[in-house]
Amino acid sequence: MARHILGTISLTNAAASLGQVYKGRLKETGELVAVKVQRPFVLETVTIDLFIIRNLGLVLKRFPQVALDVVGLVDEWAARFFEELDYVNEGENGTRFAEMMREDLPQVVVPKTYPEYTSRKVLTTGWVDGEKLSQSTEDDVGSLVNVGVICYLKQLLDTGFFHADPHPGNMIRTPDGKLCILDFGLVTKLTDDQKYGMIEAIAHLIHRDYDAIVKDFVKLGFIPEGVNLDPILPVLAKVFDQALEGGGAKNINFQELAADLAQITFDYPFKIPPYFALIIRAIGVLEGIALVGDPEFAIVDEAYPYIAQRLLTDESPRLRSALRYTIYGKTGVFDAERFIDVMQAFENFISAAKSGGGEDMKGNMAELGAIGFQPNTSLVPAFPMAISQPENPIKARAALSFLLSDRGDFFREFILDEIVKAIDAVSREQLLQIASSFGVRNPVPVFGMVPVRSGALLPTITEEDRIILNNVEKVVKFLSAGTANPTVNGDVNVVSLVQELLPVLPSITSKILPDVLSRLSSRVFARVIRESFL
Questions:
Q1: DSSP state letter for 491
Q2: CB burial of residue 445 (10 Å; 0-12, 13-18, 19+)
Q3: Active-site positions?
């Protein structure tokens, strides 16, 4: 075949594990191509090896103390291996991968497959010049590693189509500063349950909720159904406590954590699922490449912005629940610091998407990339305010722009709940001042018809109320890019606080105010009834 389609061909230094790579030029178009030719007798040799190892695994199954599922691992790997031997399948995988990344990650490129010149044992793709990412000394290596992290997270947690062989030779920095990924013979596919389960486990890990993590491990296949979890919990807690030392979940060394988890398999009914073994290998390689250039690199820290983006934008019930857990924790109490942490991570993701996407960025990340910090955009609304305007106008930032967008509707509910609680914490006089600043007169006339004690409408501010007010103040300061007025002597001026808050919601004022007042009226009315008649 080579004589008919190639004008020139030469042996290269590039050798695949199962074949040899040649550099050629197509006769018809003159394009440079890479031609991978499978080595002879590979299928027969490896099939015999797998048969022997699998039979050994069947013998090991008789010994309960051996927790490693050798048979399952061989079956998983063998299925992928036989797919890897089919170069037609590899070419199709590369084409599918390129299509998945094209819109959201144009910084990631894949060699073009020539299906008309590809067979089961010969793969023809476009030739890509470049150098191994792990050996490059260019200034943009760090940013390309981050692109690689986003790329693999997108595969792992979004598309479920996972390139499971990212060794250093398969990650190339091109002359124009892009990340080229090679060799799509070894690909694994993840279910929605597995993808969502991993995100839930990460959320629980960040909050050190080890009880929940153990249950996550059951769902993910690390622990068999029906096993008593009590003996495993303290062991896992110790492993995670060690991993979280020195900076929390974001500074975890993934390879060390994986090694510690593997040790548990010798003493407890705990195993690394075959699909996850491939993930560990892939992420471990990526982490290793990054650590060469940056000893402080932490995979979870780099991954968190992408995870925050998934939590904020995915509409699946499981991820909506995970988002609420991330903000409220298992206590069910709103935590402003967690809210800000998620939103800052989201802003970091948007910044990375905008800076790395280039002019051709499209799709989901383009939509998010359009959200950004607008330093000169005043968001002060046009309607008259009874209370004087702040000296400094509120500035828009990416987190605020997201909350005001249609995609931020679910997350906005969290803020509305806290706004209502904060307003309810003030006296009726303060409530009327705030209402008049909206241009609303007599917002809750029903109270005038109810014979109630004055104390029911003029409640004292409790410690819980102060926590709520402080939470709202932190959120307002964050959303307004730090322009909110500071409190004096630690006391929260609620009228000023709400005055600061309202200007950051102008584009949806007509939708927000009725909702706030409706919830507020219901909350205050319920409190009046409770304190007056019960």
A1: B
A2: exposed
A3: 165
Decide if 80 contacts 278 (C-beta within 8 A): yes
Strands across the sheet containing 108-109: 108-109, 179-181, 171-173, 131-132
Instruction: Examine residue 157 and state whether it is found in any structural domain, yes or no.
Output: no
- Contacts of 231-234 with C-beta under 8 Å, sequence gap 24+, read 231/268, 232/264, 232/268, 232/269, 232/270
Q: How far is CA 156 from the centre of its chain?
A: 10
- How would you class 359 by CB atoms within 10 Å of its CB: exposed for 0-12, middle for 13-18, buried for 19 or more? exposed
Same domain, 397 and 253: no
Tell me the two tokens of residue 461: 């501010």
Reported as a single tens digit per residue, the pLDDT across 293-351 is 778 777 777 788 888 999 999 989 999 999 999 998 888 888 999 999 999 999 888 87
CA dist., res. 249 & res. 359, Å (int): 34
Does residue 132 lie within any of the structural domains?
no
6-53 tens-digit pLDDT:
666 676 656 666 788 999 999 888 999 999 999 888 888 889 998 999
Token pair belonging to 355: 């800076």
375 and 516 together in one domain: yes
C-alpha 212/C-alpha 439 separation (Å) is 48
Contact between residue 127 and residue 21 where contact means Cβ atoms under 8 Å apart? no
Residues 318 and 395 reside in one and the same domain = no
C-alpha to C-alpha distance for 494 and 469, rounded to whole angstroms: 7
**CA separation for the pair 217, 84 (Å, rounded):** 29
Structure tokens at 320: 């909506």
- pTM beyond cutoff 0.90: no
Burial 96-106 (b: 16+ CB within 10 A, else e): bbbebbeebbb
Q: How confident is the model at residue 408 (pLDDT cuts 50, 70, 90)?
A: confident
Q: In total, how many domains does the chain have?
A: 2
Residue 339 and residue 475: Cα distance in Å, rounded? Answer: 8
| Confidence band of 448 (pLDDT split at 50, 70, 90) | very low
Q: Identify the pLDDT of residue 437.
A: 56
Q: Are residues 311 and 407 in the same domain?
A: no
Three-state DSSP state, 22: strand
Report d(CA 391, CA 107) in Å as an integer: 43
> Both 336 and 417 in a single domain?
no
Bridge partners of residue 23, in order along the sequence: 10, 34
Residues near 370 by beta carbon (within 8 Å), at least 6 away in sequence: none
Q: Are residues 375 and 521 in the same domain?
A: yes
> CA 501 to CA 379: how far, in whole Å?
11
183-238 residue pLDDT tens: 998 888 999 999 999 999 988 888 889 999 999 999 999 998 888 999 899 999 88
Q: Among all chains, which residue has been given the structure tokens 């969290």?
A: 414
**Same domain for 307 and 218?**
yes
Q: Give just the sign of the alpha carbon dihedral 64, 65, 71, 73.
A: positive
Both structure tokens of 208? 């050190």
